Amino acid sequence: MAPPAQSQRSPSPSQPSGKSEVSDLKLQLRQLAGSRAPGVDDSKRELFKKVISYMTIGIDVSSLFGEIVMCSAASDIVLKKMCYLYVGNYAKVNPDLALLTINFLQRDCKDEDPMIRGLALRSLCSLRVANLVEYLVGPLGSGLKDSNSYVRIVAVMGVLKLYHISASTCIDADFPAVLKHLLLNDPDTQVVANCLSALQEIWSLEATTSEEASRERETLLSKPIVYYLLNRIKEFSEWAQCLVLDLVAKYVPSDSNDIFDIMNLLEDRLQHANGAVVLASTKVFLQLTLSMTDVHQQVYERIKAPLLTLVSSGSPEQSYAVLSHLHLLVIRAPYIFSSDYKHFYCQYNEPSYVKKLKLEMLTAVANESNTYEIVTELCEYAANVDIPIARESIRAVGKIALQQYDVNAIVDRLLQFLEMEKDYVTAEALVLVKDLLRKYPQWSHDCIAVVGNISCKNIQEPKAKAALIWMLGEYSQDMHDAPYILEGLIENWDDEHSAEVRLHLLTAVMKCFFKRPPETQKALGAALAAGLADFHQDVHDRALFYYRLLQYNVTVAERVVNPPKQAVSVFADTQSSEIKDRIFDEFNSLSVVYQKPSYMFTDKEHRGLFEFSDELANLSIGAELADTGVPGHSVEANDKDLLLSNSNSEKEETRGPSNYDAYSAPSYDSSLVSIAASQTQSDLISSSTTVPGNAPHSSFDIDDLLGLAVSVTPSPAPAPSPPLKLNPKAVLDANAFQQKWRQLPISLTQEYSLSPQGVGALTTPQTLLRHMQSHSIHCIASGGQSPNFKFFFFAQKAEESSNFLVECIISTSSSKAQLKIKADDQSASQEFSSFFQSALSKFGLP
Amino acid sequence: MAGAASALFLLDIKGRVLIWRDYRGDVSAVQAERFFTKLIEKEGDPQSQDPVVYDNGVTYMFIQHNNVYLMVASRQNCNAASLLLFLHRVVDVFKHYFEELEEESLRDNFVVVYELLDEIMDFGFPQFTEAKILSEFIKTDAYRMEVTQRPPMAVTNAVSWRSEGIRYKKNEVFLDVVESVNILVNSNGQIIRSDVVGALKMRTYLSGMPECKLGLNDRVLLEAQGRTTKGKAIDLDDTKFHQCVRLARFENDRTISFIPPDGSFDLMTYRLSTQVKPLIWVEAQVERHSRSRIEIMVKARSQFKERSTATNVEIELPVTSDATNPNVRTSMGSAAYAPENDALVWKIKSFPGNKEYMLRAEFTLPSITAEDAAPERKAPIRVKFEIPYFTVSGIQVRYLKIIEKSGYQALPWVRYITMAGEYELRLI
């Protein structure tokens, strides 16, 4: 246990230095080894205890190995336990000595006391010495068949341990098959649970090299096994229940009855006292209902109360874990907790990690109806509690302001912060006011009046200072003192340590110069001189750039520095929705706490390989549906998914189609999985980014359906055909497309036969996408699986911003394409239609 | 894959490893210790540190108990909620064995600790965490007594929380209905948040395998039975049960039936989010008479019926940290200045319903204040109290039946108590 730790510590005088005590112990153990005197066991126990505590506090007692083994021949179980402990600790560093112990451990594995059999087997498997594995197979084999469940529990884990020491030995002995048998037949639930853990791990690791193992891993998710485990779930220990539930969450139900059966069965798990079980059930409910929007919403309602209780009762650590999950949920469904916001008010005594998450929750649940209360509460924290939390809460107020339409009240509050005259409050508020002005320039008048009163001297933090300087530059025409304040700052150029501030200062003085040239000219000169002499590369470069720009042409410079600005409508979300979905798939794991998918923080060999299987399962379902031919139906169903869903439900649905509809993710997955499979073990994401050509489409997986990630790569488009000129770089975002599709009437419906070459070339949607793009027709969403594909295209006239929208359903089995065309300019739709068809007819031709 | 833990560490207050169990051999003690000592040194206040931290490929999850940290390390994407909860269970197990979990008790019991660590987790997967069950095969006094140790029956039982063959001379059950009131009042005197968290805490001393049935005045149940529910029934928002309760039956007909574990456990917890009138209301006025003298006047009023009495009332009034020379008068109870908490603590042993008591305190402040004084941390007024024989929710145990096949008569003792949970008034 602690031998390595010893090197860390300086030997303190109170601790025995070791040497003499150890040799003392050695002597005494020798004397006792052969003795059969009464009471000898007691003295042995005392000695062993001493050895163990020496071992624990970091004294190397490995030299006693021989004596310990000699003494442990006794039948006394307490002695045995201590001896196992000792051996387990030193076997790895002393493989030769470990061989000595094999003998007596093997003998103990046949002891009549099941406790000893179990303990001996556990110690045997924990030795982790590669050249001893041959001795493990026999005892493990009989352990798995032992009549006592304790021994079987230990043996099952033993198999997994053996696998990690020597995978081939474990597979050759056919242990996984035995475990599978036990999984389905053992009366003891802990044996079953351990089998499940062991098999999941073994097959996931094996799956990278063996086809059979990946099939076996699939069978773990098959209906018989999942149902068998579900039916027994109440017998399982709370931890094992979590394990089973985690498995069930990955199960792909066959139909909606299946889903409802499982949910009914698990409903009462939400009332389990163990928070981990509640969270695991939540995951099952959410994952199962992804495809059923209505039910999915009901699930949110149902899980709300149990989760809120978990937050307010139990340990702060539990609140922390649960709050992280709530935050994920609230991002996906902001309205669910909007009336329960009071649960996220901070208590005075809570640790700040809980408070921080609660503040995030308050920000996320804020909407028109509760903003006032939430902001009032947040302002309370800004004045009261500890500084990091005060800062966080001011930031929270700002975030709420940026996401709301009605910001009147909030702006007042923020401005009040500025007047509180506490350095950190002012600093945070300044940064926020700056962001706010970028979004709501109409507030500039009110804000500037207050900001103008702030003295630069009181602001030390670079971020805040930069924000203030930005405002000075941007609104220099409204702020009387702006040029002089800037001048003062430039005079102290050398005292300004932050490059960020100096950069902002350069830009601000430039802006100011164009607005009030006579007052700023001197300051500008000083700033440029200081900037050119600056040791920081970026500052130097910017100064030089401005200098040359001014030299070249002052009007151009003004256009560069002071262009008319558009208000920022939405600040960029730092996390892509693809990543968010991935985190949601890994619900109830560390991913949620870290807000990162697992591939970002685990090493390859420690990653759960089930991610692959998810994709595989979806694929197989998708293919199945397509084969059995329900295309017409699913096209209809899918129509909704693709277009009519409003932006709120978009996210919930993203995984849904992948389970059920032939017309969605699976087609992407097919390319993904084949790529992934060819690059064994490499992660989906990392592999897909390396795919050339269609990478932008395939890597964005499901979201691409909604066209969120369609990249308008400026491919060198060949000249479009003469009569109708289309804009090769047309841009239309998915929401706009949806809106238009809903508003416009259908101007043309046509059916069109495809050439056999075209049919042949249409193996995945991507091929057609690229082809159409070369004709300046862009795809916003696509999906499907051979033989049925569905696409939504759009195109834009070259000169005017008149759009054409196309829904195109292609069936390769009948070589037919159905087109629905909608257009802003109805008169041109016929022309566009023929253009579209001619483009389509060229598809597949060399 | 659920993800397994790599190792479990018990660390002292400085973050040094006291004892640890390596389950998977992929995180070393040196690595963990180096990381953790750095972490708590850097932070100073470990309270502010997230309980889940990532470092160099390893996730560390820890909790603190007394002067000991318990920490699991893992290299996989494991289940954070489950492992944190598991650590709390480990604390319970150790408490059961050593009375209290602290550095000294661990140092005195290395061998038992190792044994326990081996049984609660195997190869990183949680196994048995029921202290009662564990204590059947890991005995602390085994070093003197010649007991044969065998794997517990319960391991093989369907009822994993209770073993067979338990005998008591006198069969008794104690049921405590404990409700804690959480309340948050803002500086305008408005209640901005209130809820009640209740628990049915049981201590059973019953022989054999008793079947218990508990009847509550649960509105859903009473209505289902067609009884009148005027004023007597209650709505419980979210109930959670101990694993012994047959949840399927509760879902069906709202009967709470179970075979209890031996000893004490929480049978059920529930939450009520209805608005609660503050049971004890506190009003405070602060007057600054001069730069150096401050006076606080406090009124505390009990807002429940006369027949109930709150006991052990403790009102903690925040006072600025530089206040000195307290001069306090109270109309009831005693008040003491606790400078270590920057608070004045007013204790009232017994506070009957519908009464009002006063406190008046005067402090001297230093006449010179530092220019750049740290911003004041304003604490709320916090109140602690207990009201026996009273529940806010009005929950009642209508019956508690105990049936065992040997047919003994068992005595159920039921007790009600309401106490203050997070009871905060931001009034000063």
From TrEMBL, chain A:
Note the Pfam families from the entry. Answer: Adaptin_N, B2-adapt-app_C
**Where located?**
Endomembrane system
Say if the entry is tagged with keyword Transport. yes
Give one GO term, molecular function aspect.
Answer: clathrin binding
Superkingdom, natural source: Eukaryota
Taking every annotated instance into account, which residue ranges of this chain make up the domain Beta-adaptin appendage C-terminal subdomain?
A: 724-841
Q: Which GO cellular component does the record give, naming just one? A: clathrin adaptor complex
Record keywords: Membrane, Protein transport, Transport
Q: Check the record and name the InterPro entries matching this protein.
A: AP_beta, AP_complex_bsu_1_2_4, ARM-like, ARM-type_fold, B-adaptin_app_sub_C, Clathrin/coatomer_adapt-like_N, Coatomer/calthrin_app_sub_C, TBP_dom_sf
Which Gene Ontology terms describe the biological processes this protein takes part in?
A: intracellular protein transport; vesicle-mediated transport
The UniProt annotation puts the region (Disordered) at 1-23, 630-663
Q: Where is the composition biased (Low complexity)?
A: 1-17
Q: Subunit details for this protein? A: Adaptor protein complexes are heterotetramers composed of two large adaptins (beta-type subunit and alpha-type or delta-type or epsilon-type or gamma-type subunit), a medium adaptin (mu-type subunit) and a small adaptin (sigma-type subunit).
Stated family? Belongs to the adaptor complexes large subunit family.
The role this protein plays is: Subunit of clathrin-associated adaptor protein complex that plays a role in protein sorting in the late-Golgi/trans-Golgi network (TGN) and/or endosomes. The AP complexes mediate both the recruitment of clathrin to membranes and the recognition of sorting signals within the cytosolic tails of transmembrane cargo molecules.
Protein name, as recorded? Beta-adaptin-like protein
Question: Which source organism?
Answer: Trema orientale (Charcoal tree)
Taxonomic lineage of the native organism: Eukaryota, Viridiplantae, Streptophyta, Embryophyta, Tracheophyta
From TrEMBL, chain B:
Pull one GO CC term from this UniProt entry.
Answer: clathrin-coated vesicle membrane
Q: Which PROSITE patterns match?
A: CLAT_ADAPTOR_M_1, CLAT_ADAPTOR_M_2, MHD
Keyword Disulfide bond in the entry? The reply is no
Which biological process terms from the Gene Ontology are attached to this UniProt entry?
intracellular protein transport; vesicle-mediated transport
The cellular location(s) given in this protein's UniProt record come to: Cytoplasmic vesicle, Clathrin-coated vesicle membrane
Residue ranges the record marks as coiled coil: none
Keywords (alphabetical) are:
Cytoplasmic vesicle, Membrane, Protein transport, Transport
Under the subunit heading, UniProt states: Adaptor protein complex 1 (AP-1) is a heterotetramer composed of two large adaptins (gamma-type subunit and beta-type subunit), a medium adaptin (mu-type subunit) and a small adaptin (sigma-type subunit).
Give the family per the record.
Answer: Belongs to the adaptor complexes medium subunit family.
**Name of the protein in question:** Clathrin adaptor, mu subunit
Query: What organism does the UniProt record list as the source?
Result: Trema orientale (Charcoal tree)
